[in-house]
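Quiz preparation item.
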């Protein structure tokens, strides 16, 4: 199938839906007209796009955890606990890894093993195996919007079932849920699968139901420079808008330097609006989400709370619409519900204490914003040129050429030539630009910033800095100083 950034026509979409809904027995439980009616009876307090709009109007930064377990009643109890004890403003349903790879048979086994063991033997909620009615039990058991969080390159059936099940937000995208999650899924395929997902959301929107879409901002979550994640997020927003998506939350994973992270959030919304309007997609609701540090965490729970709180401070000062919260069990694995709630409570304490404070627009902040604008525009404009005006084709060709290049990505479709490293203040810079389309001014800026660190550490900038930075936060630092 020739990839083209064009809204799927309904004939094509209906035909494909028959095949998608037959790929697992629970697909038979999806009735789109009935699902639209179900959504229309949901209270506004449970509709993500509406609550985000209210938060954006009132300048509220909402907090949301990640959470998902194998058994339906345990998952419901977990979400209720995170809502009531943790104070979650939005709830997730994190989907298990088998489901993310369309391996529903193994997910089924995982459910049976969990029942036998009396605890979750899956690392998330196997929504496809449970089907529409079970999803509705989850949505009806809580009082806040629930979002599907996962990492699925082919999320067509997962979207059909969870959206019919009353979830009002769906995370991911054809690039952001491929490059960081798969070894060998061609971008032509994953982008095309996500055009289906977005066309489904567009169909809900055309029938009066608002479903929010959230491209996965952090990507590999390890020292990803803002302009790289912004370029991917904005391309996914443009592809989604073409399919009729009207509500988008664009994301960014914390890097750790305050000015750079605040600059990243402020430029993300601004650049998204700029490109969406430039390409004729006006009237979209754009919100932002900040992910607390996505890289290696300290094992020590007190130190982990330090990292979580620093993420909360940055989210508050960036005035981001939503912050995704980490837990003090991050270094160990799936958190207990108490640890998950603790991360939420620490975050909300900081958000509440900072809601009446703001960060002045200092010259450092302005410089970081200007650099991110220049870099992101350079990547996006080159991508469109490679695509000869088509964003989907451009994205595929940009990755092949290394015009978009995600650090530490497992995908063989990612060139993997760039190298990030922190500068002396911990901001993430480029040690190696790979094939990125950056001019001499941008390159000189990064080279000087890293040279400054080299002078301070009395060592030549090298790959060793990258390695030191990857382990730094887990060891209680930000910049990976030499021992
Ligand atoms: C994107 C990776 C992030 O998702 C988190 N995560 C993945 N699965 C779950 C899960 N089932 N419950 C809570 N957190 C989870 C993981 O700890 C990491 O912070």
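Solution:
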């Amino acid at each position: 199938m020739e990839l083209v950034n064009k809204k799927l026509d309904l004939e094509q979409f209906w035909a494909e839906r028959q095949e998608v809904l037959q790929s697992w027995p629970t697909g038979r439980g999806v009735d789109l007209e009935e699902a639209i009616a179900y959504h229309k009876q949901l209270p506004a307090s449970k509709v993500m796009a509406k609550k985000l709009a209210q938060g954006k109007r009132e300048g509220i930064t909402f907090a949301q955890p990640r959470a998902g377990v194998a058994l339906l009643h345990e998952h419901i109890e977990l979400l209720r606990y995170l809502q009531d004890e943790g104070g979650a403003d939005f709830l997730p349903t994190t989907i298990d890894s088998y489901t993310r790879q369309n391996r529903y048979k193994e997910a089924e086994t995982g459910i049976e093993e969990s029942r036998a063991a009396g605890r979750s033997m899956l690392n998330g909620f196997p929504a496809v195996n449970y089907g529409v009615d079970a999803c509705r039990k989850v949505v009806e058991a809580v009082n806040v919007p629930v979002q599907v969080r996962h990492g699925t390159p082919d999320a067509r059936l997962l979207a059909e079932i969870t959206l019919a099940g009353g979830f009002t937000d769906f995370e991911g995208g054809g690039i952001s849920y491929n490059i960081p999650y798969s070894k060998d899924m061609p971008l032509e395929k994953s982008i095309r699968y996500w055009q289906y997902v977005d066309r489904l959301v567009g169909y809900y929107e055309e029938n009066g139901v608002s479903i929010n879409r959230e491209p996965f901002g952090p990507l590999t979550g390890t020292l990803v420079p803002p302009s790289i994640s912004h370029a991917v997020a904005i391309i996914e927003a443009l592809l989604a808008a073409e399919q009729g998506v009207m509500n988008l939350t664009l994301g960014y994973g914390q890097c750790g330097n305050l000015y750079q992270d605040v600059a990243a959030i402020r430029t993300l919304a601004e650049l998204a609006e700029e490109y969406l309007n430039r390409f004729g997609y006006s009237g979209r609701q754009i919100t932002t989400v900040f992910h607390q540090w996505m890289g290696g965490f300290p094992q020590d729970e007190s130190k982990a709370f330090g990292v979580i709180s620093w993420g909360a401070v940055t989210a508050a000062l960036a005035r981001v619409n939503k912050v995704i919260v980490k837990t003090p069990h991050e270094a160990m694995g799936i958190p207990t519900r108490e640890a998950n709630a603790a991360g939420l409570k620490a975050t909300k304490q900081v958000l509440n204490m900072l809601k009446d404070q703001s960060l002045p627009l200092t010259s450092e902040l302005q410089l970081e914003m200007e650099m991110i604008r220049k870099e992101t525009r350079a990547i996006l404009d080159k991508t469109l040129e490679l695509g000869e005006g088509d964003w989907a084709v451009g994205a595929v060709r940009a990755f092949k050429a290394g015009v978009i290049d995600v650090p530490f990505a497992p995908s063989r479709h990612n060139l993997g030539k760039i190298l990030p490293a922190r500068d002396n203040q911990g901001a993430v810079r480029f040690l190696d630009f790979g094939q990125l389309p950056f001019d001499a001014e941008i390159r000189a800026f990064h080279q000087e910033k890293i040279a400054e660190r080299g002078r301070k550490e009395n060592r030549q900038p090298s790959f060793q800095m990258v390695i030191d930075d990857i382990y730094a936060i887990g060891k209680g630092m930000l910049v990976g100083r030499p021992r």
